[in-house]
Amino acid sequence: MPIQEVEKIWMNGALVDWGEAKIHVLTHALHYGSGVFEGIRCYKTDKGAAVFRLRDHMMRLMDSGKLYFMTIPYSVEELCKATKDLIRVNKLSGCYIRPIAYRGYGEMGLNPLKNPIDVAIAAWPWGAYLGEEGLKKGIRIKTSSFQRISPNVLPPLAKATGQYANSILAKVESLNAGYDEALMLDYRGYVSEGPGENIFVVKDDVLYTPPEHASILKGITRDSVMTLAMDMGYQVLERDMTRASLYLADELFFTGTAAEVTPIREIDNYSIGAPGPITREIQAKFFEVTKGGDERYKAWLDHVYP
Ligand code: PPE
Predict the structure, then answer these.
(1) Total-model pTM
(2) Which run of H or E residues covers position 284?
């Protein structure tokens, strides 16, 4: 689906016209993947648009930058304010937000350190990542033959542009094989995550998700779902899992800013079945919370129109 264009993009402190938000072809990040980014969602609530866990995302952007020796020339506060200004200027309510900090134009070659660090934030309406149908009925996934990057290859904790070459290979492999999405295993052979999502397993009313050492990106949706599930009275465990244990799961679902809470109905041709009761309950709670329907989690929402 083509990106739905809006009016303005924030670039290095200024609001520029959508069509003018351009970079030079010799931009360092284009050649070497030397950028860090975020994906954030803004939801329509009773009190107008609200960005979900904005500060947490901007803090992770800073951490990703640190892992690549990039000092982002704006504070978390400035980036949060810029995001909300951008949403207002574009008169958006529900939208996806893509902040990116990247090594710009200057020198060529692997040493990025003398290149400027440019920062941009874009926002546009983006629907269900794995389709409306996927959100309701669940998706089919396939274990990838591409292993998830490991801690001594690239830092999985960083959300860096170059690291997504790994995700793209897994994603395309799964699409070419007729599935909706991939599942990636870590360097030890244990379950890691999807190309752009964390995974949860439900077995005997307990929720399991792979730990940090399984080479995951520590998802903010993953953290939110863990909190919500525990508050709902479920036990949630971070644990290494084998692919076979997923085949025997009662329920499976992906989490992510883009993917939200997406049920998985089939993995490697093993049927898990229609979205189960716990997946449905957590998905419903997640959407209630993001849309401002539960007072207990209002600290997660940053209102755009005060
Ligand atoms: N793992 C990976 C590898 C990942 O990229 C994401 C987000 C997650 C887990 C979930 O993290 P969080 O969004 O904090 O819950 N992927 C982003 C980019 C997806 C894309 O296609 O681009 C996203 O969901 O915005």
Answers:
(1) 0.98
(2) helix 277-290
pLDDT digits (tens, 9 = 90+) for 70-103: 999 999 999 999 999 999 999 999 999 999 999 9
* Amino acid in the structure at residue 94: G
Among 61, 198, 200, name the best residue to mutate to test ligand 1's pocket (greatest count of ligand atoms within 8 A of Cβ): 198
Integer Cα distance of 34 and 22 in angstroms: 17
- 66 as an active site residue: the answer is no
**Residue recorded with tokens 């990039």:** 70
DSSP state for residue 295 in the 8-state scheme: G
Structural domains of the chain ordered from first start: 8-124 (3.30.470.10), 132-290 (3.20.10.10)
Mean pLDDT score, 190-213: 98
CB 168 within 8 A of CB 130: no
Return the pLDDT at 306.
78
The first and second tokens of residue 154, run together, are 């690239």
Q: How far is the CA of 149 from the centre of ligand 1 (A)?
A: 15
DSSP state of 279: H
